[in-house]
């Protein structure tokens, strides 16, 4: 077994879903991994990881709108407000989604479903430089 | 270390929680794994993975009812509506729950708590054939 | 590759977030692990795992208050009520957060972001003794 690692960098332009599936598959192919497990970890508290519908962009529109409905800005009971109106909602959205993911690798690529894509979900309004830790355990 | 893999198939009959704990333990026992890590991944965007109360079925009733309350059908702001009224809520519910899980194996079986069961959560109204990718890293 | 395992015990004093980052790093250091993957699994259905803001305590205040808003006690449609008013909400909160996490290890410690801490989230009102299964795959 071998263990590979790198970090992916994503420059976000405010709230939304940023696909990282191709970058992950490129790393897997560069390392020559055929079979194993992929680990993703995002070291941020106001951005997170989401696997969801990649084919129809309207599905992601609803996912984004939903996060606004379920964790809106400006709630009267927020006490963590010093870092901006969008900061506390960003932590809430991070808690509801994923900070780590594990995805099998088969035949030299992520074993995603037909409609699945892997996304970095940015929860702050402003542009940010985000990192994702990519680790792959190769089992052959 | 050895790596084992198979896919589990679950035929769902509409929304609800379908337990897969016995099938996972059967695979672990068939492979003769005593100690290691189990990885579950569901390659769907309208079904997900949930670990929760397995003893009292009323707990799962509340979990199901809750998903209806928190991500209902027919919201006026949904734009992803071409694939049915239940499709966008299914993606939302998938985002709030898990697409991947990692569970330790000890003494030849999943190290679940006394009251825990592993479930496939079906979020569409109609029956579906669902797959779950099961991978086990055996460390002895 | 080597595989290490232990269980962490946390005595909770009712609802809230209990940090476990130092205990995890101590185990990693005691085992002499430099690089690899950490796996956390919580074998409970009314407590869960959360990675979030560790610097400013007001952020965690909002996370706790949010769980009360999003999964309150006393909903008229709860049917799982025999184990107390706080039991069904505890299962809902567990479903929305994480039961398992995977975190890279680099340079002999968890590769968390600057502001991240790892927490056990207690969802019941009363004090509980909770376990967390800690597994580390060392790759050197």
Q: In the CATH hierarchy, what is the class of chain A?
A: Mainly Beta
The radius of gyration over CA of chain A amounts to 16 Å
Average predicted confidence as pLDDT of chain A: 97
* Largest β-sheet summary of chain A: 5 strands, antiparallel
Q: What's the multimeric state? A: homotrimer
Morphology call of chain A: elongated
The CATH architecture classification of chain A is: Sandwich
Number of strands of chain A: 8
Roughly how many Å apart are the termini of chain A? 6 Å
Spatial order of strands in the largest sheet of chain A: 1-8-3-5-6
Q: Regions of chain A with pLDDT < 50 over 5+ consecutive residues?
A: none
**Total domain modules of chain A:** 1
Structural class of chain A: alpha+beta
What is the string of helix and strand elements of chain A? EEHEEHHEEEE
Number of helices in the DSSP assignment of chain A: 3
Q: Per CATH, what is the topology of chain A?
A: Jelly Rolls
What is the helical fraction of chain A, as a range of percent? 25-40%
Largest interface: A-B, 34 and 34 residues
| CATH homology group of chain A | YjbQ-like
Strand content of chain A: 35-45%
């Amino acid at each position: 077994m071998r263990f590979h690692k790198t970090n992916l960098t994503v420059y976000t332009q405010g709230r939304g879903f940023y696909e990282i599936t191709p970058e992950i598959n490129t790393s897997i192919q560069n390392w020559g991994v055929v079979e194993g497990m992929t680990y993703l970890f995002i070291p941020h508290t106001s951005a997170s990881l989401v696997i969801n519908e990649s084919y129809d962009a309207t599905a992601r529109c609803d996912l984004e709108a939903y996060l606004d409905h379920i964790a809106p800005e400006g709630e009267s009971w927020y006490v963590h407000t010093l870092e901006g109106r969008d900061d506390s909602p960003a932590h809430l959205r991070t808690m509801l989604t994923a900070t780590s993911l594990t995805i099998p690798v088969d035949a030299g690529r992520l074993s995603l479903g037909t409609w699945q894509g892997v996304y970095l979900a940015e929860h702050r309004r402003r542009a940010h430089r985000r990192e994702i830790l990519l680790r792959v355990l190769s089992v052959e």
